[in-house]
Write a sequence for this structure.
């Protein structure tokens, strides 16, 4: 299987203290990779490193089989992302924000904006300005912005924060739809284990900056009586005792 | 590059600043004209040269502050709201993005000073016969002779208008950007007088040149390592 994102022995130190230690990760084409870890484990930092926002102290990251260098930018055209909470230009409307996004990426398909708003359930509020949006609506718009250009890789950092149960269900279906229809590779992080469990093909569990394990969801279903949560807690707690 | 400037323009609705520009021009002209009219009754009425140098001081102070407002909107606010993170996930050279932003600030300051100076000269020339600011008519030749100096001044102020960037970027604070612009603006334009003659820092040609270069260097330093640093 083709590897879309490959992280090899990557470490990152902020001001001397290491937050990411020798992480190896492989995300294959067309799979949903669930990224689990307690708060502050380093999920966001790794995602930022894939997007070239944070530079690794050592190790190598390859995306689309090309190494990510400090000045690489072209590969970003094929990645859609949400990092932390979504930010927009508050004084502009939702549509204008997406339009700007498309122009910056260099994606010219006028109907895409409307489609994306519809997919995330924001049709009808496209003409509203962002400062009138609730957190859940911003989160949905953030997802719309990530998918509007139909990227090959989606990097979603905590995309279901602040969403209502219907929103969570919508996102779950959306991810599966993208995987099925466009063969999109999706890297999704969350600390809500049950959500990851229901969509992911592969799970990576990170704790205190170290990738504890990378395992196929099928294997967990087979070996651990189907409960990812028990597996996760056991791993993280086990890790803590040895740390 | 032009496309980036255009996008920046569009998303920050910079055309709205033209209204501010018009108000500035009107206010500067009104202030200087009123001072000139007010001084007519005194034993030392304002001469045309005084009039022009006073309006020049006001123009320079106004636009260095105005530019710092745009600078904080384009650069500082974007860092503060972490919008810069989104901007840096686009397939564009990060240097180009920052360059586009700084060129807008530089260009705005440069052209505003030139336009305002031109309009104030024009208004003075046209209105002088009506409101009688000066007894003698205004020499057109003197106006024309001032063109190269105006362009040079505008260029130097545009360079200086980038200095507040380095103050603002330290704590990503818009207030400190604008405050530093106010201080710099007043410091180099304030004139000192011993009764007979007056002078200001801006008149010693070396000082504005050095500061302009400093501004351009600081602007360059702001983006030369943007590829290598983390965007937190």
């Amino acid at each position: 299987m083709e590897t879309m994102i490959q992280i090899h022995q990557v470490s990152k130190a902020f001001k001397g203290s290491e937050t990411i230690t020798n992480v190896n990760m492989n995300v294959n084409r067309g799979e949903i990779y669930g990224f689990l870890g307690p708060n502050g484990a380093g999920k966001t930092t790794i995602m930022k490193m894939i997007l070239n926002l944070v530079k690794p102290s050592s190790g190598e990251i390859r995306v689309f089989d090309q190494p990510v260098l400090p000045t690489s930018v072209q590969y970003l055209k094929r990645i859609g992302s949400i990092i932390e909470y979504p930010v927009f230009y508050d004084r502009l409307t939702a549509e204008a924000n997406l339009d700007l996004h498309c122009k910056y990426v260099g994606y010219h398909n006028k109907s895409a904006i409307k489609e994306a708003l519809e997919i995330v359930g924001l049709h009808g509020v496209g003409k509203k300005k962002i400062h009138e949006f609730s957190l859940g609506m911003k989160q949905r718009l953030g997802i719309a912005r990530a998918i509007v250009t139909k990227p090959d890789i989606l990097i979603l950092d905590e995309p279901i924060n602040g969403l209502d149960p219907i929103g969570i269900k919508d996102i779950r279906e959306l991810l599966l739809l993208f995987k099925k229809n466009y063969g999109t590779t999706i890297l999704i992080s969350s600390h809500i284990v049950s959500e990851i469990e229901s969509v992911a093909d592969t799970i990576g569990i990170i704790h205190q900056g170290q990738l504890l394990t990378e395992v196929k969801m099928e294997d967990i279903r087979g070996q651990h009586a189907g409960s990812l949560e028990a597996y996760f807690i056991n791993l993280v707690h086990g890790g803590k005792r040895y740390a | 590059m032009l496309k980036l400037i255009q996008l920046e323009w569009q998303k920050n609705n910079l055309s709205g600043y033209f209204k501010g520009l018009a108000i500035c021009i009107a206010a500067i002209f009104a202030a200087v004209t009123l001072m000139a009219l007010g001084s007519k009754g005194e034993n030392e009425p304002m001469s045309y040269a005084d009039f022009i140098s006073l309006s020049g001081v006001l123009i320079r102070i106004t636009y260095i502050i105005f530019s710092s407002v745009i600078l904080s909107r384009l650069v500082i606010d974007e860092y503060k709201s972490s919008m810069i993170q989104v901007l840096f996930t686009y397939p564009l050279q990060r240097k180009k993005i920052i360059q586009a932003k700084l060129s807008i600030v530089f260009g705005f300051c440069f052209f505003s000073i030139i336009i305002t100076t031109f309009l104030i000269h024009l208004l003075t020339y046209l209105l002088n016969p009506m409101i009688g600011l000066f007894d003698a008519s205004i020499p057109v030749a003197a106006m024309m002779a001032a063109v190269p100096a105006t362009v040079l001044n505008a260029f130097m102020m545009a360079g200086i208008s980038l200095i507040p960037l380095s103050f603002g970027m330290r704590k990503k604070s818009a207030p400190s950007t604008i405050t530093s612009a106010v201080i710099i603006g007043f410091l180099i334009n304030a004139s000192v007088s011993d009764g007979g003659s007056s002078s200001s820092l801006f008149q010693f040609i070396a000082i504005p040149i050095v500061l302009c270069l400093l501004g351009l260097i600081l602007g360059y330093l702001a983006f030369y390592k943007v590829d290598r640093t983390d965007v937190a």
